[in-house]
From TrEMBL:
Residues 132-326 form the D-glutamate N-acetyltransferase-like C-terminal domain. Residues 42-123 form the D-glutamate N-acetyltransferase-like N-terminal domain. This is EBNA-1 nuclear protein. InterPro entries: DgcN-like (IPR011669), DgcN-like_C (IPR035086), DgcN-like_N (IPR035402), P-loop_NTPase (IPR027417). It comes from the Bacteria. PANTHER family: DUF1611 DOMAIN-CONTAINING PROTEIN, GLL3100 PROTEIN.
């Protein structure tokens, strides 16, 4: 995938920072690609980038406006359309990770044609996938799983891939969502794949490779989330992980978007092992990635230590405190150099 850079990150009028996770993800992992942000009245999210209008962005050299916010169902609010059309009018391409193609909206399609601009639909692919077959394939795989949505599965996977590579262990990040695809410039939007083919798409994403190579696969949803468990299960079976890392945000009481209580870390470990054994009987938990963004440093460190001792597993906040404890454990478990 090739999207012209640099980017202007569109935040819309979302009501919290988690709803702007695409913008934050791209900025955190590819800051050199981002020049500014644009938001609508009432927006509760913000980045560290300067606010720009579309004319200023074009003058500063921005090439693409990225829709940096998401909502349940991946729909495009009608009142965002005018800003997208104006971006095209100002000479910018537009990229979005919605469940609707930008070109299916008449006003956007007309403007893109009139101003000869490109529309990038990150949640759509021209690839077709077979059904998964569960056959054992060479190489090693690590999957991030979560106690909920938006708990740090993508960030943990990116940090773990970086940590493995820094130790000269061959590793790739495999993106499965729109933000990960923007960061990696490749991947499969797994939640847009027809359900029968999710596991096959995951097999395609992490194919047979050298025995000493690790594919670090970005997890989606949660096995116990009533809205998204189907995607999580198909990804688990197709990924066929040798190891998984449980991602957890400790300040929540209910799962995002629903009233279901947050499951325990142990429930997620047990469910992942039980269900993952279908395609990899040797699946094992390699550690805990605790998202401590909402905690003070002292509280974060004490909680991480407490959870590590409770579950007899290495625990860390991969972004805040690094990945060494988990990677040390993986190296010992799998006898890596």
């Amino acid at each position: 995938m090739s999207i012209s850079k640099p980017y202007l990150l569109f935040l819309g009028d979302v009501k919290d920072e988690l709803a702007a996770k695409t913008a934050h993800g791209v900025l955190d992992w590819r800051p050199e690609w981002c020049l500014g942000q644009i938001s609508l009245p009432g927006c509760k999210a913000h980045t560290t980038l300067p606010e720009m209008n579309l004319a200023e962005a074009a003058q500063e050299g921005v090439k693409t406006m990225v829709i940096g916010c998401v909502n349940a169902g991946g729909v495009l609010p009608d009142h965002w359309i005018a800003t997208i059309v104006k971006a095209l009018h100002n000479g910018l391409d537009v990229a979005a990770g919605l469940h609707i193609r930008l070109g299916d909206i008449p006003a956007i399609a007309k403007a893109a044609e009139e101003y000869d601009r490109k529309l990038h639909d990150l949640r759509f692919t021209d690839l077709t996938f077979p059904t998964g077959n569960g056959a054992k394939r060479s190489g090693k795989r690590l999957l991030t799983v979560g106690t909920d949505c938006s708990v740090g599965k993508k960030y943990s996977a990116l940090a773990l891939q970086k940590g493995l590579s820094e130790r000269n262990i061959s590793a790739d990040f495999c993106a499965t969502g729109q933000t990960g695809i923007l960061i990696a410039e490749r991947g499969v939007p797994i939640d847009s794949v027809i359900s029968d083919f999710i596991s096959g798409a995951a097999e395609h994403l992490s194919p047979a490779t050298k025995d000493d190579h690790w594919d670090v696969i970005e997890g989606q949803g949660s096995l116990l989330h009533p809205s998204f468990a189907g995607v999580s299960l198909g990804l688990l079976h197709g990924s066929q992980p040798d190891a998984f890392v449980v991602c957890h945000e400790p300040t929540r009481s209910t799962m995002r978007g629903v009233s279901t209580p947050i499951p325990s870390i142990q429930e997620i470990i047990d469910q992942t092992v039980m269900l993952g054994r279908l395609t990899n009987p040797d699946i094992r938990c390699a550690g805990l990635a605790i998202n401590t963004m909402m905690l003070s440093e002292n509280h974060a460190k004490s909680l991480i230590e407490e959870l590590g001792e409770k579950h007899k597993l290495p625990a860390t906040d991969p972004v805040r405190f690094g990945t060494d404890p988990i990677i040390d454990h993986i190296c010992a478990e799998f006898k890596l150099v």
